[in-house]
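request received
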Amino acid sequence: MAAPTSYHALGQNANILRFIWRKGFLSSMRTEHCLVTPFFTCNRCHAKRIGSSPEASLPYYTKLPQTPGSQDHSMKLSNVRTSASCQVIHRGTQTNITTPHRPLQTVLLKRPHEGVSSTVNRVQPLHTLSTHTKSLSWKSRYSVSHRNLLAGVACEGVCSLGNPLLPHSGGGVKRFMAKWMTRVYDRERKKEIVYQYASAEPARSTRVYVWGYAGVGALGLPTFLRLKGKKYPKLVQSFPHRFMFLETNNYQPISAACGNGFTVFVAKRSGEGHVILGTGINSDSQIGYQEAPKGSGRFLDYLIEPAPILLPFQFPEKTKITHVACGRAHTVVATDTEGVFTLGNNSCGQCGRKIVEGEEYSHNPLVNKVPFDEEIRQVICGQDHTAILTQSGQLYTCGLGADGQTGLGHHDCADSLTLVRGDLQGEKIVHIAGRSDTMLAVSDKGDMFGWGNNEYYQLDCVEKDRTQVTEPRRLPISDKIGKVTQVAAGGTNCGLVNGQSRWFCISYFIYLLDVTDNIKRGEVYVWGYGILGKGPALDQSPVPTRIPPILFGRNDFTPDTKVTSLTSGLSQFAAITDRGDVYMWGKNKTGALGLGTRKDQFFPLKVSLPSMAEAVSCGVDHVVCIGKSFC
Amino acid sequence: MSVIRGAVDAFGALNGVFCIYKPKAKHMFHLVNELKFKLHKELSLLPGPMLDKRRVTLPSVSETTNLPITVTLPDLRNHPRVIGDFVMKEDIKMSFIDPLHKYGTGVQLMGIADGCGQLQRLVKAKLVQVYHISGELGYATETFSEGGRLVEKSTWYHVNRSRLDRVIAMIQSAHQKHQYLLTGVDIQSQEAYNMAVSGMVRPLYEKGKPIIYNVKCIDFKPPHFTVEVHSVNEDMMYLAKLIHDIGMSAKTTATCTGIRRVRYGNFTLDHALLIKNFDIENILENISLCKPLMSWKKLQPQRKIGRLQGSPRLKITDSTQQLLGDGQKEQMEAKHSEKPEELKHFTDSSELSESVTDADLSETDVAEESEKPLIHDHEISEQNENKTEYIESKQTDTVENNEKAHFSPTQNVNQFCGPEDYAEVNQEPLNRHSKDKSNRDQRLENSQHKRKFFRNNAPRSYQGEDYGGMIGPRLPSSLVIAKRLKKKKICA
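response:
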């Protein structure tokens, strides 16, 4: 069969082409050149190639084999479809293949399991419409009736009949065809382009999420409060909001801490040292001496967007900020080599310096540096006191001691960091907690100690009569709880996370008894007063009671889920499981639970976070969570 | 089960819920059609019902007694060659619930005859279903499934097992929260807490949002992967979209390439009947296999709400009561208890009297009939032979046969009979109706009373099979499979 010279020679009707395209042999066509551009599919990688070899400049039919028999055609066609006739390029590279008619961007990627071949396979000589007629007959052996009909039309070359399924084509059909062809182009282009959303081995990025009360700028989201085209500011963010400030400014988030209405972020820029940024209430200079514009004498009492806090580092590029904590109106920053820096209110000595009567804390540029030789393990701030735990397990406190929260044996304010004794003497403390007036500590043996406020049964098991405990006391723990690994103390409620059982033999015995639920640790126990997390019926408990682990996702499908860390705000709890889920419960007046509502939550409920949480910091009415992306 | 001697028995016995393995690339509607066709074909091959007898007065007069001769002959008006097959395709009532879509495979529950109604109990029980969904990374389509129009392609080399598992774990824990919110209970109440503590909770509403109890990657051969999903209220599109979401969360795109339902509550692949084995015998076997799984206890909506005495949820209105399934069960019971009575009545009034009259005549007339049969039809004589057998079976289980008589298309033919016959045939049902009327009312009252009584006193908490904290039917597969896979070291 002689190859026709042009597409028009076959009947000047696009309908037949359309049909052929439908059959999947043709992917695009260019009527202005009267050419037919076939495409080939690689069966292995599903990539499709439009057109012939890149350097082809002549119409395809000139490249046809001279005397192809019909059987050869079908064989050829099947060969083409099954062999990898697409151009294979190494992973991650891109190239532009220029066809004579239009540039085509192809990013075809070799799959790793198929091995890498650097050779570029030439596309087989392509077939024209005439070969399609052959191939149609080859293909239409198992096609249904109308296909047969059409195939018959195509085979016999009765193309002037057009598509028997459509009425005789007029101008409207032509217009439609034009639109249709652009759509075909778009669709085929989609098949060519391979998007790359992640590199071959992407690092998991750190993400920060904030939620809670936004009115004072503590969330660092300025768009909430700027009235650009809005009638009211957005005061409450009741579910997690991605905090993009650090990413957009090329900071890498490291940690964060929440105070009463303000937040402090520790971040790092590549090639620079650690930076600390603050946002929210700055009434007592707790997030630094913020003057804007500089030298104007205009000091900012509220920041709605994070601004760097300048600390007098000796080696700003080397020094790392290891810990940060925020109280009611003061901030404590611990570094690895340069000691501890404190900012903000010092009315009770919480900054670790002498209390000055009548000191003005607003727009006060004073930053107190407390030299600290030992390596620091943990820094926490209560409302008006500070506690620093060293790696050696010793605890230093300063600040308000009205409820005995400094644990120094008196009710006075301590204006310098002082070593805490009491029952802590001789113990190596590994974890401390205290958001308000009650303090809890855990030793490396799994013992728990407590001091401070006892008005709400927090320390009822050791001191039934006194509402204040001024020195640390060892809290008796039942064998059922086992070792304590983490503690949390809010305003009126306390919680702990247990670890391994104290005596292995006992736990093994329990295991033998098939009480397997007890041997898996990482359970949360709560006591005190308020929303404890066991429904609205239980509002106070002097002894630790277990929150059923099923509420933290330990069910039949995921039987080994554990709570790894527990933190508390004044009246909320936040627990992180080993699966990276955050569960919160407690008071929710300002949406600080991140559950999408402002109703109080009486049992742990998962916060919908699109990342795996690593650390949560609870303020009084807002929460910051730092996590890692899944991929 | 009674012995099946013919199409009548078979058609009557085909009644209940059964479970098939749906093949791929076949729409459920077409499948049902096909199955009906198969059944119809098979039923038409079985021996049909006995032809009714008809007393015919011959025109000639007996020479000895000078009286007109009456003979009893089979009523050829009801012959299959006249009225067609005993069972037409349209008479087979078949339906399904939670249909798999065209390209889905796996366990598919179907009902036949009364089973169609029983399926609704399954719907209300909201059984947990287990799917194996396979997906392919690297491209997205408009329908989330293989056949759809391409949306975009993307690279997928960065996806490895641990990353995929992380994404899947996120999806699962997100749904765990979801199920507490869909219980229909105030989340701030103590009841909500108790419900949450008791384990996984079924959603309140019949047609609610889908809930996924468990997602797990069971196979990962990039770019192909398979996830196991335990879910309620899902549909095929949702499952396909789940794969799409997994792909998006893994920083690539993914398309669903296959959905296979391996479990529907207690119905597993072991119960599923293959289409190639689809015949009356196997269906009957399957129905009896599925019957214990349809018991009331197994289908009780297990929400453990009965535990909470005095909670506001216990004041259940009639509509919610029905939703919970107690009323349904009661209805079913009432149905079963009523049926035999009704049928007995039917036999008392019509069948017995008929047989008595026939018996008197048949003794005298059979001889004549055999001597000079009016119609020398081979088939009919065959049927007469069958007839005797058939009568025996009729006496053994009259109840069933009458049930079939109710269904038989022969009844419709009666209106084409002559006026006498018409009167005769219709007399019995009319009588029955008048006789029954008082009884029927009483029965109705009784059943209503029973229903009310049951509604007020039914045990609302049935704790089901003990399965740890999980409410619902026993769902062993995921854990067991995980252990097996670990043994085989398939999953790392």
